[in-house]
Amino acid sequence: MSSTRIESIGMTVGDMDRSIDFYTTVLAFTKTGDRQITGVASDDVLPLQADPIPAAANLQLRIVTLQLGAETIELTQYLTHPGRTVPPDSRSNDRWFQHLAIVVSDMDRAYQHVRQHSVLQIPTPQTLPDWNPVAGGIQAVYFQDPDGHNLELIHFPTAKAAPKWQQPTTNLFLGIDHTAIVVADTAASRVFYSDLLGLELKQASENFGSEQELLSGVAGVKVRISSLTASAGMGIELLEYLEPTDGRSIPTDTESNDLWCLQTKIVVADAMETVQQLTAAQFPLISTEVSLSNTSTLEFDRQFLVRDPDGHTIRLVDP
User: Could you tell me if 45 and 291 are in contact, meaning their C-beta atoms sit under 8 angstroms apart?
Assistant: First the structure.
């Protein structure tokens, strides 16, 4: 079994117009889709439904697709039944942490641009030290969108950049390299993502020191990073905080309308077969979904939602 593509990341937002303005103005995303679903009477037709929320005839969703380079994100606003906001005391080692790593062609210019436009404070970019053979020379900085979703600007030195990030361009913001999630145990997560979903380990490292502390905002940090890839699309990074070990688990009552609930959409060769193998390995199915297809409002796609060992939501779809 193999994952063919890590296709997109879904995020729930509190104010769609505000989010569109942020991502298109600050980060140069382009809106490629905008639709509303109204009068849904069953949980089975909610494209971003994880745990059941009260089904009601007046349930309304607005779903917007944004693209940067070849990568996409999907924003959903629950116009009715809005969920909870991201906890204000969230930390980078809490396991609901998930960020999007946005590749930039020039870190200094990108930092100044975001700093001028972002409504939230952005720290100083860090250059990871050369003693780290995997990450040395990479520049990065964490910040947040208006809803508290975590984002990263990242710039690769030529020797560490994938070919797609080395193409000549005048663009400042290039695309999404990966999404990073905090996990409690790398080995357990590798069973889920590598053994069962077929993602391949590209590289692994352990990052620590003052630069990593300033990047993550966590004192005394030592983090094990495992970079996983599919045949196409963005990658997934597993972040296991070896120190400190006080990161909090994803709340067990998390629902898809809560703003901290992100969903990673992965295209697999056979979604039903994949779900059966995940279920046999005791990774329970959250729900079976029927969602509007991208080609016609009269056509539907079948999708499956599962949780990884730490409670991150994964949406599995057929090619």
Answer: yes
Q: How confident is the model at residue 48 (pLDDT cuts 50, 70, 90)?
A: very low
CA dihedral sign of residues 239, 241, 247, 252? positive
Q: How far apart are CA 319 and CA 316, in angstroms?
A: 10
Cα 79 to Cα 59: distance, rounded to the nearest angstrom? 7
Backbone angles phi, psi at 316, to 5 degrees: -100, 130
Task: Give the Cα separation of 183 and 241 in Å (integer).
Answer: 8
Q: Please write the tens of the pLDDT for every residue from 148-202.
A: 999 999 999 999 999 999 999 999 999 999 999 999 999 999 999 999 999 999 9
Residue pair 132/191 in contact (Cβ under 8 Å)? The answer is no
Of the candidates 81, 59, 83, 68, the one whose C-alpha atom is nearest the C-alpha of residue 11 is 83
Q: Is 299 buried (19+), middle (13-18) or exposed (0-12) by CB count in 10 A? A: exposed
Q: pTM here? A: 0.90
Give the residue from 131, 169, 8, 162 showing the smallest Cα distance to 75: 8
Omega before residue 244 within 30° of 0, cis:
yes
For residue 257, give the 3-state DSSP assignment.
coil
Phi, psi of 141 (to 5 degrees): -155, 140
Residue 294 contacts by C-beta under 8 Å, 6 or more apart in sequence? 33
Residues in a beta bridge with 69: none
Burial 192-216 (b: 16+ CB within 10 A, else e): bbbebbbbeeeeeeebbeebbbbbb
Positive or negative, the Cα torsion across 149, 283, 266, 106?
positive
Burial zone of 280 (CB within 10 Å; 0-12 exposed, 13-18 middle, 19+ buried):
exposed
Decide: 23 and 102 in contact? Cβ < 8 Å: no
135-150 exposure pattern, b = at least 16 Cβ within 10 A, e = fewer: beebbbbbbbbbbebb
Rounded to 5°, angle at Cα 65 from 228 and 295: 100
